[in-house]
Amino acid sequence: MRNFRHAFSLVEVLISIVVLALGLLGLAAVFPAVILEQRVASDTVQGVSMEKSVVEWIEGSALFRERSMNEDNDSATNRRGWRILLAEPTWSQKGSWSPAFMTTAAVVPFPAGVGLAVNSATGWVGVGDAGGHAFGIPLEDRLFPSPYSFAGDPRFVWDFACRRIEGGTRAVSQQPTIANSVDDSVQIAFFVRRVDAGIRLRGGARSISESFLNRNLAWTSRRVPVAADENGRPAGDGFGTGTLAPTYSPISMFSYTFFPDDSNADPSYQLIVPGVAAPNGFYPADPRPYAAQVGQQFVDQIGIVHKVVQVVPASGSDPMYVRVEPPIDRRVPAKALQLAEEKRMLYTPQVPVAVVIRTIRP
Questions:
Q1: How far is it, in rounded angstroms, from Cα 324 to Cα 269?
Q2: Domain assignment present for 275
Q3: Cis ω before 284 (30° cut-off from 0)
Q4: Is 87 part of a structural domain of the chain?
Q5: Digit-coded pLDDT (tens) for 188-208
Q6: Labelling 44: which of 174, 204, 218, 254 has CA 20 to 30 A away?
Q7: Is residue 19 part of a domain?
Q8: Number of domains comprising the chain
Q9: Taking the model in full, what pTM does it have?
Q10: Is 90 a domain residue?
């Protein structure tokens, strides 16, 4: 008598399909997290490798290290590079950070006098004064990989802020003691960010590099590596909503207090509450959503980099706060009082892949 093997029943087949579907859903849930972790790890490695290149670029730049066009005449019209900043007594008084302010001028003059500026539509960043003497870094020199290279489209861009490190004072014969800017140094905070992932080419641009650098494109077809909307919030698309031209997202600042409050701060100085409103002139106006991101990095008023390791949501009467590593140095509150400003952090609304601090003496 022949034996027959029974086929799977319909119920068994349906159960198998359900189990398979659940397994695929599980994989689908895991893959994005794995991909994100791999990208973060890759970005971190590349960011660290870029740090040295960025610092070497600045330290080796003749435009920034050249002190004067005429060694015997250190007038404002002859000064170059960092000397433009250091020779101006109103710049970075007492060592406050000087992020680049936004301007729509092609390059110069700088409407706010001596300082750093970033062109809001092109990303040009430079040092200059109201008289039109400017020396900067074009966007193409701050992109990695280099535009139009065999390595593909740029994936990272770097920006910087700086402050004065005073070297002291000197006595001049037959004159009162005066501030000596000659022996001052410049401390620079470099932020390396990933280029916006949502950039779409328009208007004849054939590559990301071309959309950044081709000045023959219409404004609506141009892009910047990191864009902001009209309120300074990260756009992620290289352009920004509510704007007629691309808007660059610069380094910004936010103020903060200690948790639970400044009079009863966490003894470790690890817990900080980002301010509800950014200091005047800085965007986004509400920095909390961008400051409160695990992995976000800040630079404090004495030049120490801090990383967010935990975000604690608001609960009851307690505000949202973040835990940072390393803890805030106890010199920071005193420095803020010296500067006559709130306790502040230098940051970018986009989480940077690397932040590096260097002090150079031009």
A1: 9
A2: yes
A3: yes
A4: no
A5: 999 999 999 999 998 889 999
A6: 254
A7: no
A8: 1
A9: 0.83
A10: no
